[in-house]
Amino acid sequence: MHATLPLLEVSDFPAIRRERLETLQVNLGYKCNQTCVHCHVNAGPTRTEEMDRETVHTVLRYLEASGVGVLDITGGAPELNPYFRELVAGARALGAHVIDRCNLTILEEPGQGGLAEFLADQRVEIVASMPCYLQDNVDKQRGKGVYDVSVRALKRLNAIGYGRDGSGLTLNLVYNPLGPALPPPQAALEADYKRVLGERFGIVFNNLFTLANMPIARFGSTLVSRGLFNAYMKLLRESYREGNLGAVMCRTLISVDWQGTV
What we know:
By secondary structure, the chain is an alpha/beta fold. Helix content is 35%, strand content 13%.
């Protein structure tokens, strides 16, 4: 795999300043039931790295001591960590708002019985990967059959209240491009998602977030192999908009890896 960090260190992107800490983002491990080209931590079924229980409890102690109001849990598929539910319940008991970055297909994995209901009981906000509303695009990026499983998962979440007005159960979807391109305007794409998923499957959700792929790890290495890395960096640099800086999430969070390293 090609290393991209040395290529990123020489970029001339504008410097940004941190803001007040609002969110603790925690990666529970790199094991995942999917292997996605764009994954920035190279997660997959063969990865074994996962946060242990002692570190999970350190996270909870930090939440209590710091008063940080949001716990943003990611992976891999974070739900595969054996202490995922313990962390969620502990954070909610402390009054923290919890976000689960869910790939949807995890709801049908062996050993995940009752996961959707657990998330609902804990009032967890779900940010779910759904890289397109069309089957061909999703299966191309995430694997054959992923689209159908994702649709079933969304229907299941809707059935217990997620994404529905007045339920208090927030379901957001995330779009990212298939390759080295920028996402289309978020508002227009959200309208398309809601129209297509609503008309075809009766699926509802709250918001769509559009993301550009990070030119690092598996995706960055693919760009290097195909001779597209410099062109993609040029596209990102030329698309810079100062008005977007206020929404850059890393300004208001700290990220902790599976070993507890900030």
